[in-house]
Amino acid sequence: MPSITIPETMKASVFKGAHDIEYTTVPTPKIESPKDAILKIEASALCGTELHMYRGDVVPKRADYITGHEFNGTVVSVGDEVRDFKPGDDVLCTFTSQCGECWACKDGLSSSCVDSKVFGTWALNGGQAEYVRIPYADHCLFPLPKGMNRNTALLMSDIFPTGWLCVNNYFKKVLYDKNHIANDVILQLGAGPVGLCCIAAAREMGVNHIYVADSVPSRLEQAKELGAIPININEVDNVAEFMKEKTGGKGADAIFELVGNAGALRTAFDSVRSAGFISSIGYHHEPLPMDGLECYLKNISIQFGRCPVRSIFEDAFKVFQKISYKFDKFIDLEMPLSEVSDAYAVFDNHKARKIAFKIDQ
Amino acid sequence: MPSITIPETMKASVFKGAHDIEYTTVPTPKIESPKDAILKIEASALCGTELHMYRGDVVPKRADYITGHEFNGTVVSVGDEVRDFKPGDDVLCTFTSQCGECWACKDGLSSSCVDSKVFGTWALNGGQAEYVRIPYADHCLFPLPKGMNRNTALLMSDIFPTGWLCVNNYFKKVLYDKNHIANDVILQLGAGPVGLCCIAAAREMGVNHIYVADSVPSRLEQAKELGAIPININEVDNVAEFMKEKTGGKGADAIFELVGNAGALRTAFDSVRSAGFISSIGYHHEPLPMDGLECYLKNISIQFGRCPVRSIFEDAFKVFQKISYKFDKFIDLEMPLSEVSDAYAVFDNHKARKIAFKIDQ
Fold it and tell me: Any idea where the Alcohol dehydrogenase-like C-terminal domain is (chains A, B) (predicted)?
């Protein structure tokens, strides 16, 4: 094993406030607990969820944190209690940290871990940087899949497992009934990066009828290539009415909601059939746009929330392995980390599907 | 088969407006479609859901309808297309009508039937009367269970299947996992008639830990007798904090919400653990008291809605048969239908657990 020297300072992307991302020099992270590891970042991406903070829709408890929750790299240092990894290992990391020991971690709900933090937030520095500290390294890291390029592997930190979860929530709702899965009509709201992962997962997992609504033509083209039926919301007056027309007045059997605003959730509610299901993966920040009587009368059920990537990694990866070739060019723009501020603006304006950073070290 | 003579007029309870129920003479219903049947009512009850209209919380589209959706009786007349029932048959009826032919009926979702109506509402006259018309009789009626007294059988029209459904929603959420069912901690909000059915069903079905919150001491006593742990909300400052104390800070694994107002739903949300489940059976009439970010961060899932009694009748009845002896004195007050106006007031003031009407014919 080579001896790895870690410099005292590093370059990193730091969140200063809405529309204010700074490329700057900061202290390199150090082991703080015996369960920590330090990674040298080799690949790092920008996720749509980060735009909620960038746009000011969600205001973090404090600024001055290092951004980024999708990254992989090489272990350069581990604490005394890290058993499964050692310096030199190529690894990817889940977008959240989790302890591996609490009731939630043990029950397959790692995103509900009592000490879970999201990388690249006020609670935990992220990986749009040269180095990152990983708490509970044994429960956050996975070996980098053999033969997989690092940019493709970035999708396994968050967005592919999240897309898979959106589908699996619906599978659980129909108790994995193959007849439902094959014949149900799904409406997906949002064809951004997670949305495209969701379509690919759904089609691979046996969903035959999936409509996808978005406003960005390039996304809709990719959605179609992956096997969805595109709906351009600028060309359809009313998505709910459109879905009713396509289903003999019934409505979609289930909704995959990946947008994360009240308008999308209302469209989901209006488009789903009676006793239907909404799998909501979107990061919301507004009051729920339905009232209780509507929910009662429509016999609706909704699953919200963050993906427990750690807990479902193996199941999601089984699907990803089969179709990862579809994602080899998914990251369509690479920019130097020094241009991180521009990168956020480019991504916010839908000028790239998915951006990865070149970490200049 | 005896010839049965039906008079031209009958006595009935008619909804005139909030706090205004009138005992009056109306025309006796007649066969309107070849799928109809006419029942002579032998037993009829008052359900908590009717109090939403009585109190003015929910305003019907029009007044002047016959109230009551829990009843059983004897078939006195059938249309030409009714195959399974004939005059003289003793039957009970589901609290909704359903066609039996649409996608929802065929998919086990009879409460979402495209032509479903609730008896005793502006949409369909009910059974607090001497006679009632049953649309789609083959899909609304069941033979009266042999050896079961009529007042006990009243519980199978709505409240026992509804309580059973509340439990079964949770069973589905945990994919019928016996370990979860036996060990999970449930908080139930509401110990009214449906709530007591829900407790009895849950305990019979394998739920071991069920806390029940209510404000009425007599209900809490009955809840305890049926195997729940009572929480008097007048004696506990904060139900959510109380549940956290009882679960090592985690919160309840699932909530059975049977109250039907925003306060109860908020208590449900605050009391449930991360990634927990709310089975909401309550008939709501207010905005949802959570915002989207809370739902996302808590990874919550919620099932709302009305019980498809027709679709789940056999499953619920299997449980009811085993424990129906516990319900033989459940109806603790019988009043003449002529005193229906008083009966609503008595029920609204929690002066009786469950009221049945003596139909004086």
Answer: 193-305
